[in-house]
Design goal:
The structure is a single chain. The protein has 166 residues and is mainly α. Helix content is 77%, strand content 0%.
Length: 166
């Protein structure tokens, strides 16, 4: 993450506020809020401010994924646009979805909330959409998972990492 912070400081830092940068980073698949909070701590953004920005950035794409990703994937596969990539994403999401049928709410909450590689709000939303789960229940589980991930990442980035960097 330090290299991303260095890149920001050397290229975007003079015209893009650091808050906008962490907001955008929090919207990016795979990096999401987890990366946004680590970067925020390295950029010395106060904890509460960083949380609000990163949580909003991470939440923003979720309704679009839940509502439209399945239709978008069908369209792209039908017209042979990134068909191989789409099938790979679907296969990966479905493989990670083992256990969703039993306790889907808790599964989604933990899947999004525990910061491990390949988990997060984007993948959780993709799984919920592909499995045609109830959007309201999935949204609440994903939101609570994002809050859980924020708390864990606060401890890591502002606690452990913050004491190492300072």
């Amino acid at each position: 993450m330090q290299s991303l912070v260095d890149w920001y400081n050397n290229s975007l830092g003079s015209f893009m506020p650091k808050e906008v940068f962490i907001f955008l980073v929090s919207m990016v698949p795979l990096i999401e809020l987890r990366g946004g909070l680590v970067i925020a701590s390295l950029l010395k953004i106060p904890l509460i401010k960083a949380n609000i920005i990163c949580i909003i950035g991470n939440i923003l794409p979720i309704p679009f994924i839940l509502l439209f990703i399945k239709k978008l994937f069908e369209f792209m596969k039908k017209h042979n646009i990134f068909k191989g990539l789409i099938e790979k994403l679907e296969k990966r999401a479905m493989k990670k979805s083992d256990g969703v049928e039993k306790g889907e709410f808790i599964f989604l909450l933990l899947f999004v909330g525990i910061p491990l590689p390949g988990t997060g709000a984007w993948t959780g939303s993709l799984i919920a959409s592909l499995l045609e789960k109830d959007i309201k229940k999935a949204s609440v589980a994903i939101f609570l998972g994002i809050l859980m991930a924020a708390i864990i990442m606060d401890i890591v980035s502002y606690g452990v990492l913050g004491s190492i960097v300072s």
